[in-house]
Every structure is written in structure tokens, then in C-alpha cells.
Q: What sequence folds into this?
């Protein structure tokens, strides 16, 4: 069964999950030929190991807190903060508290 994605022009709710955050799952919200947007759920203590992608990305913390590492620097990222990374930059994170992140990827071919 295919994963449902938002259609062009369709509203998508990305409000904080609050009390339901611990039950949340990572989900791709939409994907086109050049762009993918996902809601990444990271439980406290979980690490997303360092990796890199070809295209540029943005990461917006919707709720919770993560320690985000890129360019040799680890910095706290809290709700309401956003970062941008050029393509090819190694990055990873560890959730300090349960976190929900909005991740946008430019899909380079």
C-alpha cells in the first residue's frame, strides 16, 4: 500500500503534537521530483547518526529539543528554531527531549 502524501494545494497540519508526541511516528508529508518534506519524530535519547544528502536541507524544530551537529559544531536546537544546510554537509542529531522536526530536502539527481 502506498504512503499517502499531500496533494498540491492541500493544507497539512504541522502543529506540535504536545501530549501525543510520544505516540508520533515519522512521516513523509509530500514528495515531488525535487522536494521532500517530512515530519521527523525523535524520542529523547535517540540519535540520528551523522549522514549527508546531495541537496540542501532545512530543519525546523517544532517541539522538544535536539543537539544538532553539523560543520564540526554541536548546538542545542529548540522549538521555533530553524537551520539550513548546504548539500553534502555531514550532519546528525541526538534528542535531548522528545522532539518533532520538520525536514525539507531538495532532491538532487
A:
Amino acid at each position: 500500500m502506498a504512503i499517502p502524501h499531500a496533494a498540491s494545494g492541500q493544507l497539512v497540519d504541522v502543529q506540535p503534537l504536545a501530549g501525543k508526541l510520544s505516540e508520533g511516528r515519522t512521516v513523509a508529508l509530500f514528495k515531488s521530483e525535487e522536494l521532500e518534506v517530512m515530519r521527523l519524530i525523535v524520542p529523547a535519547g535517540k540519535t540520528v547518526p551523522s549522514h549527508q544528502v546531495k541537496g540542501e536541507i532545512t530543519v525546523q524544530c517544532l517541539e522538544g529539543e535536539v543537539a544538532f551537529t553539523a560543520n564540526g559544531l554541536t548546538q542545542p536546537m529548540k522549538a521555533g528554531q530553524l537551520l539550513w544546510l548546504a548539500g553534502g554537509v555531514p550532519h546528525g542529531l541526538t534528542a535531548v527531549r522528545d522532539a518533532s522536526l520538520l525536514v525539507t530536502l531538495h532532491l538532487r539527481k
